[in-house]
Amino acid sequence: MKTFVPKKDDIEKKWWVVDAEGRILGRLATEVATLLRGKNKPQFVTFLDTGDFVIVINAEKVSVTGKKLAQKKYYSHSQYPGGLRTDVLQDLLAKKPEEVIKKAVWGMIPKNKLGRAVYKKLKVYRGPEHPHQAQNPQEYKF
């Protein structure tokens, strides 16, 4: 018996549209990360990019549970003294809702060369419109 390892040419990439309206942020991010990595496909291998392209629309209408809107914080540091910046989820959703979904998905994929390649296939848009009609994306049903 031999283990099947797909070649780069054998991997078929699809485009999916995921509607974030009314979806819980973490649950949405896990589904998107699974599609991006290709873990839902039978030819999945850990060392190749077997995943699909994902378009997330209505990012501003994503929901969270509990008191996360007021209590969840995102930290970034400029590497200078006193350079710590803190953003609360509620403010970040108002200013850049795309970043909230991108950060949640980034936390669920590997932090290496393959993870960065997978992350580039994620497209997130604030409203229901997106410029990827030419790729004939399919609606993803949860």
Write the layout of secondary structure elements.
Blueprint: E1 15-19, H1 25-37, E2 53-57, H2 68-71, E3 73-77, E4 84-88, H3 89-95, H4 97-106, H5 113-119, E5 122-124, E6 138-139
Helix pairs in contact: 1-4, 3-4
Question: Brief overview, please?
Answer:
The protein has helices at 25-37, 68-71, 89-95, 97-106, 113-119; strands at residues 15-19, 53-57, 73-77, 84-88, 122-124, 138-139. The protein has 142 residues and is α/β, with parallel strands linked by helices. Helix 1 (25-37) crosses helix 4 (97-106) and helix 3 (89-95) packs across helix 4 (97-106).
Compressed to H and E, one letter per element, the order equals EHEHEEHHHEE
CA-CA gap between termini: 35 Å
From the spread of the alpha carbons, the general shape counts as globular
Largest sheet: 4 strands, parallel
